[in-house]
Structure formats: C-alpha cells, structure tokens
C-alpha cells in the first residue's frame, strides 16, 4: 500500500482540491446524463426516435472508453493538474456544441468530445485522490468527491426536466456552461502540482488484466453498471408510458431519486471501511431489486417514488464501493487500474444504452427493464461473497 507520506507528498491533505474535483464530478454527471431527463424533447427537436436519441449517451461512452485507455499513456510525463484542467475545458466546449447543435450530427460530435473528458477525468480521478489525502482518508475523500454525483443526481435531472419544459432543452445545456467555467478556474487555483511519478504504458494495464481477481472484479463491475444504466437511460419513457406522469410529476420523482443519493453518500463515508468484499454485490442486488419493483408496481406513482428513492440511494454508494475496491486491490498501479475501470464502466454504459434502446424501439419499455434485471442477476452470481475479487494478500 502506498504510504500516507507518498500519497500527499509530505503535505497536508488538500481538501479544497477534493472539493474542486467534487464540483467537476457534479458537472460531468449532469452533462453526461442530462439527455435522460430531456430525452423526449431532444428527440422531437432533432426529429429522431427516443431510442436513437439515447445514443447521445452511448456515443459519449464510446469515446470515454477510448480516452480512458489512452489519456494516462498519451499524457506521458505531463503534470496531472494540467491534464485535469484540459479535460474540464473539453467539457465546457462540449456543452457549447450540444446547446448550439443545428442537427443530430453536431450534437453527437459534442457528446463525443464530452466522452473524451469523461474518460480522461475518471481514469485519473482515484489516483489523484490517493495523492491529495493520506491513505486512511482515501475512502472519505472518495465519498466527498462522489458527493458531487449526489448533487448532480439530486438537482440536474429534475431541474433539467422542469426548465426544459419551460424554456427548451438547449437552454438547459447553456445554463451549465458558466458553472463549468468557474470550476475550470477553481481547478487552476486549488489543485497542487501533480507531476507524473512515472510514464504510464499498456504493460501496467496488461499486468493487471492477467490477475484473475482483477478480471473477475472488472467483469462484475461491468455487469453491475450495465444493469443500472440499461434501466436509467430510459427511465423517462418508462415514467411517461407506464406510470403516466406529466413533466411536473416527472421532475418531482427525479428530485426524489437524486435527493436519496445524499443518503447513499453519507452511508458510504460512514460504513465503507476495511474489507470492501461484503459491499460489492449491494449495487446489483439493491438496484436490480428496485427495477423489479418498478416493473411490478409501475402503475402507482407512490410505489414508483419509493423504488426510485432506493435506487438513487444505492446509485451514489455504487461508485464509492467499486473505486474503493480498486484503490485497495490495485494500489501499486492506480492510474492503470483507473484506466481499466473507467473503460469497463463506460463500455457498460454504452452497451446499456444501445441494448436498452434496441429493446425499447423493437419490443417495449418493459423489455428494457427486464434486460436490466438479467444483468443484475449475472453480476450477483459472479460476485458471490466478494472474496474471489480481492488481491490474495488483501484477503
């Protein structure tokens, strides 16, 4: 395990930098998944089907996969502070392209650029956190950083849905741009210099991929994320077609889902300590169960709100659980592990959006949710008690 002194370079924990990264996480999540809450008006405005418009999420996932594998190696000896700043600048440009997109092609180009930002940022994020705070504070710092996810989940989707109904979907994306610009300046001020310790190459990634415990963990992570986003990408069509909600009720339900995320963030920071194995199957188990609940009781707004709250609480714990697993089981090669984890997660989001869209357009929205449950069951079966996903000396 990397020592606390090595992690922080003999400096105090840089909590201001952690907060800056938390805001970046909030903006990334808001930017990446805003089409979920605006899927219907975006499809109408671009003269496309909802299934096709859902690919605005899959295209960002595709480019995120590529970027996550390449950024840590292509950046070479570049200072990680300036790489993170560059990724945030890409996010700002992406939002401008999407908001001003005259057609579907330009929209997809903007989303592809966002994918580069997503892949690059997340590939470095956990490794950077491990350098900003002492080892014992890493789970707490990860929970704080992913608090940005809770904020985005709480407010981005419902506010986006509501404002989109009032002013139009383009204005929602324009509204994000000044916040990202502020975050860009905050990065420059708060992040300490983060010189590369060593030049990354693909050999470190291949070394990790040869480890059976890491292979199993990566596949389990992919199945869990694939399950979550096969459902989440097409949540709005489900709520409109099955539950029969209007825009106001949709916004309230999305706000409930998001606010529940604060409970998940609090729980992750409080209970996620020591052995992470018992927690690994919780995301697939709880979120898959909530999806079954939506399928069975989707006709009831109250029941839907209940299951969405459960899903939202686990959603924010999800990332902390799996990134803690990574930090504990690949601490000797955190950037290589981060690249592989982000590639796996984004590939899962991509496939979830593609498969879910095909099931939605080809069969029904219920078929999309059933596909999500199937992936959750496979994840639970692979994880078991979690011990086989741990590095031998960590067991």
**Which blocks of ≥5 consecutive residues have pLDDT under 50?**
1-10
Mean pLDDT figure: 81
What is the assigned CATH homologous superfamily? Answer: MFS general substrate transporter like domains
- Given helix and strand content, the structural type is mainly alpha
Helix and strand element order: HHHHHHHHHHHHHHHHHH
User: Radius of gyration from the CA trace?
Assistant: 20 Å
Q: What is the count of distinct domains?
A: 1
Number of strands: 0
CATH topology-level fold name: Growth Hormone, Chain: A
Explain the overall architecture.
- This protein is mainly alpha-helical.
- The protein has a single domain, classed as Growth Hormone, Chain: A (Up-down Bundle).
- It is 80% helix and 0% strand.
- It is globular and about 50 Å long.
Give the tags.
395 residues, mainly alpha, 18 helices, 80% helix, globular
Summarize, please.
The protein has helices at 4-8, 15-37, 39-45, 50-53, 55-74, 80-100, 104-132, 138-145, 147-167, 169-190, 202-209, 212-232, 235-243, 247-271, 282-297, 301-329, 334-362, 365-383.
């Amino acid at each position: 395990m990397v020592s606390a002194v090595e992690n922080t370079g003999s400096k105090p924990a840089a909590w201001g930098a952690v907060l800056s990264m938390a805001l970046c996480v909030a903006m990334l999540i808001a930017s990446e998944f805003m089409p979920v809450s605006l899927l219907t008006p975006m499809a109408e405005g671009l003269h496309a089907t909802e299934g096709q418009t859902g690919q605005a999420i899959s295209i960002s996932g595709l480019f995120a996969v590529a970027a996550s594998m390449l950024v840590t190696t292509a950046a070479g000896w570049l200072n990680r502070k300036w790489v993170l700043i560059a990724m945030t600048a890409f996010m700002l440009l992406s939002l401008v392209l999407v908001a001003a997109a005259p057609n579907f092609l330009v929209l997809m180009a903007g989303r592809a650029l966002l994918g580069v930002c997503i892949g690059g940022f997340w590939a470095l994020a956990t490794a950077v956190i491990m350098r900003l705070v002492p080892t014992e504070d890493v789970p707490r710092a990860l929970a704080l950083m992913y608090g940005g996810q809770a904020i985005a989940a709480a407010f981005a989707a419902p506010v986006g849905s509501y404002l989109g109904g009032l002013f139009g979907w383009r204005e929602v994306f324009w509204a994000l741009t000044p916040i990202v610009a502020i975050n860009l300046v905050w990065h420059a001020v708060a992040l300490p210099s983060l010189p590369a310790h060593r030049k990354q190459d693909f050999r470190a990634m291949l070394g990790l991929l040869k480890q059976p415990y890491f292979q199993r963990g990566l596949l389990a992570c992919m199945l869990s994320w694939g399950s979550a986003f096969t459902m989440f990408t097409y949540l709005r069509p489900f709520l409109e077609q099955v539950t029969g909600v209007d825009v106001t009720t949709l916004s309230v339900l999305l706000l409930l889902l998001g606010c529940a995320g604060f409970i998940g963030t609090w729980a992750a920071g409080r209970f996620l300590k020591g052995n992470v194995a018992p927690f690994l199957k919780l995301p697939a188990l709880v979120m898959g169960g909530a999806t079954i609940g939506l399928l069975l009781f989707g006709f009831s707004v109250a029941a839907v709100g209940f299951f969405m709250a459960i899903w939202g609480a686990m959603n924010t714990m999800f990332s902390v659980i799996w990134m803690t697993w990574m930090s504990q089981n690949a601490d000797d090669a955190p950037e290589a592990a981060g690249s592989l984890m982000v590639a796996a997660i984004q590939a899962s989001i991509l496939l979830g959006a593609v498969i879910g869209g095909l099931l939605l357009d080809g069969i029904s929205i219920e078929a999309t949710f059933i596909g999500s449950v199937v992936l959750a069951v496979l994840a639970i079966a692979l994880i078991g008690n979690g011990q086989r996903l741990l590095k031998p000396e960590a067991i």
